Amino acid sequence: MDRRDTLLALVALGAAPLVATAQQPTTPLIGYLSARSPDDSAYLVAAFRRGLGESGFVEGKNLTIEYRWARGQYDRLPALATELVRRPIAILVSTGGEPAALAAKSVTSTIPIVFTIGGDPIKLGLVASYNRPGGNATGINILTNTLEAKRLGLLHELVPQATTIGFLLNSNNPPAERQLQDAQEAVRTLGLRLDVMRASTDREIDAAFKAVVQRRILALSMAAGPFFDTRREKLVTLAARHAVPTMYHFREYAVAGGLVSYGIDLPDAYRQAGVYAARILKGAKPSDLPVMQPTKFELVINLKTAKALGIKFPQSVLVQAGEVIQ
User: Fold this and answer.
1) R_g of the chain computed on alpha carbons
2) 102-124 pLDDT tens trace
């Protein structure tokens, strides 16, 4: 081999890895934005990954996920969403309710968005319609914020002697006023009075429970919201300490020791978000994916907590229970 042939061979050997690298597929990157915190969301992230896995996408293998957590501080979400869209993400997944979805929508009109929210995405301006979203966003409406009236009715059956029901609300949550209107209409129908307490910080949560005691409120309903979800243990502990029967919106509260909850199968909604994200990675457009809604709702009661509070569940409530925690 002469000098010229030797040089050509060396060049070829040096170029081969560059060609091979250029031909390797790029691992897709998902931006995951949540109004909640990683501590209270591990089981939900696992469900999201299961949904991705149904289509063969596995984090760390052929998929990368970059996470941002607001930890219940909604004002952080726009900056966190901006950080994610500056990365080469293929999809922006927003979880933990309306605050995250609205922040995601505010920073991009082109990157596909998959959301999980508790209210009406049409009224929020996220989609044009349920069947044909029409833009860059779609997802799951978990209906959490529309179930306040149902929860109040169940709480009234459970504590019929309570002529006034406390309602703990986070005014910083975008659907808060709609939640309040629904709750007020519900108690009027029941012939009751609603005592509203507002909390968007730990100190305000403490103050709200002090007010419950001072005003001798016999029953309390928690308005759904991601800030409260990040404070689940604190809320359940305070309700037990002050011996106030409390209605919650997710099963996880009852499992943690809360008296009763009524809502959807939340992990399954997150799994569905993973399914939608996978479909988009495979080429589907958000505008063609209908906004999903759950059809199954579950009443979960904690008999151990009921015994501690001296409450006996009436048969009218027991027959509706999908799960009883002994």
Assistant:
1) 24
2) 999 999 999 999 999 998 999 99
